[in-house]
Amino acid sequence: MTAAPPRPHATGSRGVRHSPWAHVAQAAAALGAGMGVGRFVYTPILPLMHTQAGLSAATGANLATANYVGYLIGALAGTFLPRLMRSPAVLRSCLVLLSVSLAAMPLTHATGVWLLLRLCAGVVSAVIFVIAVSSLLSHLRDHPAHLPGWAFGGVGAGIALSGALVLALRTIADWQAAWWASAMLSALLAVPAWFLRPEPAPPSASATPAAGAERRETGPRTHRWFTALFASYTLEGVGYIIAGTFLVAAIDQSSPGWIGSGAWVLVGLAAIPSSALWAGLGRRWSRPSLLLAALGVQAVGIALPALIGGVAAALISAVLFGATFIGVSTLALATGAHLRFPRAVALLTAGYSVGQILGPLVATPLLRHGYHQALLLAAAVVLASAVAAALLRIGFPHHMPALGHPVVRAEAAPDRQSTGLGTAEARAD
User: Do residues 67 and 118 touch, judged by C-beta distance below 8 A?
Assistant: First the structure.
């Protein structure tokens, strides 16, 4: 009797077997450094810079915008220079540049230099994000959905760790020490991320002309669903980044000083399991339905500190925001990959980036009287994002046919291998 073939595992170019959990840990470290620290440590440090470095609210918003402009540049690089997103050397260079840009922040009080440093941090954060997510979607495509979800939890771990650092330092050190500590944390996370394997190069088009022809002839047209997804994710970029930038400062206005930083740590802790949990819910509900639910919960969480105030509202807001904002990204990017839209991750990240640039700009006029009006605006924009997600649900192609096979109706059995981020796409809404 012939032995059954072994279950496939991810392998490198020399056929070496790799543990999927090792890949998850490496991607989580990359996302923790690039996003959790590189981007979001600015949120708990912002109040310290207001009080200790004389930073105005408008200048704080401008620094945030500079970071988001850089993020857009990095996302566009992923769209137009896809070979860069498959280079280990590019990933490693970005990890080094990220730590350097963080460590350089306390070396000056010049606003122009700060703007350039946050711009640089935004560029490399986006490149790290696109490389890490593309790696997850390719190498873990046929593994259980919760694995990539835990990798996305690296963002939450980075937020929680950097937030805890700032919370600990705020009573014994200053804003400069907070930046240096965040640079050290980013460097530590870069060590396991150093060995992450990027997405492999696609097969040569000339080598598989028939497959390409079959895809064009039999594959469903997904442009209208991707358009709704793109609109929803771009609006989410506007709304979530206002909260992600000003939530701590808004809580500080009406609560004891430690509550704001403590709430940000809670955001990170809630974010760690969120993507895996949302992926698990995908066994019962479709991604468009889950995306709609996550956006609705997030809007409530953002509005709570402005509508109610107090410690309890601040902590509940932190949990709801942390439990949804990474989950929304996971669901949106996995939906784009499911639709097989070309360069979906990079395009969606670019739209998200545009939204993040617009967020602080539209919120700045509302900051004259504090941050609560800005949070209400953010909640309204996230609700608009939920409306676009509701449109995505109309006739959504839950089951995508394999290449070269005829199109299957949406009511067909679940497609359990469309991507690694969610499995039951044909569940009823």
Answer: yes
CA dist 281 and 284 (Å) reads 6
Side-chain half-sphere exposure of 159, counting CA atoms within 13 A: 32
Question: Cα(33)–Cα(285) distance, rounded to whole angstroms?
Answer: 32
CATH class as words, domain 20-198+220-392: mainly alpha
Determine the 3-state secondary structure of 199 from DSSP: coil
Contacts of 330 (CB under 8 A, 6+ apart): 148, 149, 152, 275, 278, 279, 421
Listing DSSP states for 254-308 in one string gives: HS-HHHHHHHHHHHHHHHTTHHHHHHHHTTTS-HHHHHHHHHHHHHHHHHHHHHT
Per-residue pLDDT of the chain (429 residues; tens, 9 = 90+): 444 444 444 444 433 356 788 888 999 999 999 999 998 899 889 889 988 998 888 898 899 889 989 988 998 887 788 788 888 999 999 999 999 999 999 999 999 999 999 999 999 999 999 899 888 877 766 666 667 788 888 999 999 999 899 888 888 889 999 999 999 999 999 999 999 988 776 665 454 444 444 444 445 577 788 899 999 999 999 999 898 888 887 887 766 667 877 888 999 999 999 988 888 887 888 889 999 999 999 999 999 988 887 888 888 999 999 999 989 988 998 888 888 777 787 788 888 889 988 988 888 888 887 788 999 999 999 999 999 999 988 878 777 655 444 443 333 333 333 344 443 333 434
CA 306 – CA 427 distance, rounded (Å): 37
Using CA of residue 45, residue 46, residue 48, residue 52, what is the dihedral sign? positive
- Beta carbons within 8 Å of 383's beta carbon, 6+ residues apart: 295, 296, 299
Cα(418)–Cα(414) distance, integer angstroms: 9
Q: Which of 352, 46, 30 is nearest to 175 (CA)?
A: 46
Question: What's the rounded Cα separation, in Å, for the pair 183 and 339?
Answer: 38
- Best CA proximity match to 44, nearest among 239, 179, 237, 240: 179
Residues near 80 by Cβ (< 8 Å), separated by ≥ 6?
Answer: none
- Rounded to a whole number of angstroms, the distance between the first and last alpha carbons of the chain is 46
Tokens 């953002």, residue located: 302
